[in-house]
Amino acid sequence: MRRSSWAGVVVVFLVAFSGSAGATEYKIDPEHTTVAFRVRHLFTSVEGRFDKFEGKISFDAKEPSKAVVEGVIDATTVNTNVAERDKHLRSADFFDVANHPKITFKTTKIVDVGADNTSGKMAGMLGVRGVEKEVILDVAFLGQGKDPYGNLKAGFSATTRINRKDFGLKWND
Which of 6, 26, 114, 135 is the most exposed place for a label (fewest CB within 10 A)? Predict the structure, then answer.
């Protein structure tokens, strides 16, 4: 039995929109963020991305286990650089964007934080095509600092592997 999975890769570079003692609130910067995936197709892998998304992160480098992440991906913007394939991915066979235009994520907990507070695992609820399931992401805090304009920025990455069939993406010809 072949297991169909998507290896989702999320690389996030964020811009601070407010700061306070403790956690800093970051807003996803779409100009410095990639939401991408790779899926096995026939005898190779197909890579794609979502071109529109938004989200926020509440993060304290001293207490990363208290981080909170929320994100929304516009599923209508799936892009594999093949127009006909993208049209099919938007159809009822896959994402069914007419009825489920958004993919959502919200943290439920952070665990297995590394000794240096820069890595761990993030559990959260992923919503795809009207189905919500808990997923575990490998996460990393890549650092923070001010950009040339004095704005506080931080970098994060998160990756996971999911079985698309768990979310109703069952089409196979």
Answer: 114
Residue with tokens 């993919």: 103
Q: pLDDT tens across 53-71, in order?
A: 999 999 998 999 999 999 9
Q: How confident is the model at residue 72 (pLDDT cuts 50, 70, 90)?
A: very high
- Residue given tokens 């240096």 in the structure block: 116
**Residues linked to residue 143 through DSSP beta bridges, in sequence order:** 155
Q: Which residue has the tokens 């811009």?
A: 15
Alpha-carbon distances of 41 from 47, 115, 123, rounded to whole Å? 10, 38, 27
Sign of the alpha-carbon torsion through 88, 92, 97, 98: positive
pTM of the predicted model, to two decimals? 0.87
Dist CA 50 CA 39 (whole Å): 14
CA distance 43 to 103: 27
Q: What is the 3 state secondary structure string of 11-29?
A: EEEEEEEECCCCCEEEEEC
Q: Using CA atoms, how far apart are residues 71 and 81, in angstroms rounded to an integer?
A: 24
Rg (CA), the chain: 17
Q: How far apart are the first and last CA of the chain?
A: 15
Please state the rounded mean pLDDT for residues 78-104.
Answer: 96
CA distance 21 to 24: 8
At 12, list the tokens: 């996030």
